[in-house]
Amino acid sequence: MLLFAWYTLWVRGLRWRDVGLHKPSSWLMTVLSAACVAVIIVGAFIWIILPLATRLTGKPIDFSAFNAMHGNFPLVVRQLIPTWVFAGGAEEMVFRAYLMNRLTDLFGKTSVGWASALFISSVIFGAAHTYQGITGMLNSGAIGFLLGSFYLISKRNLWPAMICHALVDTTFFAIVYLGLDTKLFT
Predict the structure, then answer these.
(1) Minimal CA–CA distance to 135: which of 63, 60, 48?
(2) Overall pTM > 0.85
(3) Is 176 within 8 Å of 66 (Cβ atoms)?
(4) pLDDT by residue (tens digit) across 93-124?
(5) 67 phi and psi, to 5 degrees?
(6) Residues 22-68: pLDDT tens digits?
(7) Among candidates 91, 153, 88, 167, which has minimal Cα distance to 122?
(8) End-to-end C-alpha distance for the chain, whole angstroms
(9) What is the pLDDT of residues 138-158, one digit of tens each?
């Protein structure tokens, strides 16, 4: 998907910088704001989003893909860099920078167009997480909505959302490593 996005940007004469991958005015403020939003997203996930999604579906989220991380520090560390690159980086490039901008080409670069792009890209982002079951898909869609909102609030600079996504995933890995997922997510 990333290669397709890259190709279609190239065909249009655009670069990743044109859709948000440009240097922030302050790296310190970018990292601090990403960390604050990551705390909000993790809190919303634990106390609002996941309980609501579980109630709606009647099924727990399926985190079985992460079971091997329980107490396995070397595995967690080995998974962090690919997760930062592919989830924090590539997913944000595809779902926020590329897809949201392409959708506004269809719906218009108005507030309604951006809201439509945010909603549709969040639904597609949720659907991309089928391995977590229906509850995980709803959960991921909601988190995608929050990350997309952060992208828009950040004036479509992709770095805050990328760093935030990486921090959310890192926090999740820590929760799984410590075995807290069985207490918090069931």
Answers:
(1) 60
(2) yes
(3) yes
(4) 999 999 999 999 999 999 999 999 999 999 99
(5) -55, -35
(6) 999 999 999 999 999 999 999 999 999 999 999 999 999 998 999 99
(7) 91
(8) 32
(9) 999 999 999 999 999 999 999
CB-based burial of residue 62 (10 Å sphere; 0-12 exposed, 13-18 middle, 19+ buried)? middle
**Chain centre to alpha carbon of residue 170:** 12
Cα dihedral sign, 64-68-70-74? negative
Grouping H, G, I as helix, E, B as strand and the rest as coil, residue 165 is helix
Residue 44 host element (H or E): helix 27-44
Could you tell me if 93 and 158 are in contact, meaning their C-beta atoms sit under 8 angstroms apart?
Answer: yes
User: What's the rounded Cα separation, in Å, for the pair 19 and 9?
Assistant: 9
**CA angle at 40 for the pair 26 and 82, rounded to the nearest 5°:** 70
Give the amino acid at 63: F
State the Cα–Cα distance between residues 144 and 46, nearest whole angstrom.
Answer: 15
- Per DSSP, which regions of 29-155 are E strands? none
